Amino acid sequence: EGWGNKMDFIMACIGYAVGLGNVWRFPYLVYKNGGGAFLIPYFISLVLCGVPIFFMEVSLGQQLQTGGISVWEIYPILKGVGFAGATISAILNTYYIVIVAWSLLYFFYSFRSKLVWGDCDNYWNDFYCNDPALQVNCSAPTGYFCAANGTFLNKTLGESPAQQFWENRVLGISDGIDNIGGLRWDLVGCLALGWILTYLCIWKGVKQTGKIVYFTALIPYVILLALLIRGLTLPGSSDGIYYYINPDWERLKTPTVWIDAATQIFFSYGVGIGSLISLGSYNPIRNNSVIDTVIVGIVNAGTSLFAGFVIFSILGYMAYEQGVDVSEVVDEGPGLTFVAYPTAVYY
């Protein structure tokens, strides 16, 4: 069994490498590490680590025509590396599918006539919710906003409706580790649906997968383009873009910036877990994998940069609405994307 054609393999690699790491993880790491300064160690890690290892793994699978575990039979003492990679892949899937479940929950909520992450009129909102509609007829002192209960609160304490939907409704963050809460049945259903969709995409082998990835790999670009156009039309978007491309050179002296850049490359390319070896094993043995690697590398890095412009144009608008700096608009963390994208959809 092999790929139907060369393009199937390239699209499968793009679909594998381009994903949550680009549109979810990359923007929040840029936000966390001082904006444009993060891009320098990112591209250095891409050239020195990401592309060479990607090429090596695809070539191993292609030349030996075998998967990520059995490939190590060429040097049996390292066979444990294959099992370790498979174990890591299984562990990664346990939380990767949770992110898919969160996304599916947003997807189902988007079919409501009223998008619930756009205002502060929901049961999960508290008085820290900074509703832009409420500020229109409000005469709060400089540096303050009008809370729903009629009081004035410092703008640095305010949270956008999208952020409260994410933290209070989707995550349901409790007041402490001693209160773990119960099962969230809506998320349980989305989690099950995520696994079912994954199974349906792969159950007939690589020939079917090679066709499905044409949709799964291309549709994100259509959505990102629509969000970027919308984001750039919002007031304050230029401030967010400036924060994104303007490097804070002092941050380059911080080791964590370089560590985050390298780990992002490994995460985005999915190296070291055997998947690329398996994908390469379905190639003809004489396939030119150098060209494939360069294409995937350019598309992967380009998508990350593109997603960054989308996210930061929206963050600039959110900072404008809340009257704070871009660096203070939301908490730096994995939830950044789940706040920014819904905001763009609403406004």
UniProtKB/TrEMBL annotation:
The chain crosses the membrane at residues 9-27, 39-60, 81-109, 183-203, 212-232, 261-282, 294-320. One of its GO terms (molecular function) is metal ion binding. Signal peptide: none annotated. It holds the Pfam family SNF. GO terms for cellular component: plasma membrane. Na(+) binds at residues 15, 17-18, 22, 268, 300. It is a multi-pass membrane protein. It comes from the Eukaryota. It is found in: Membrane. Belongs to the sodium:neurotransmitter symporter (SNF) (TC 2.A.22) family. This is Transporter.
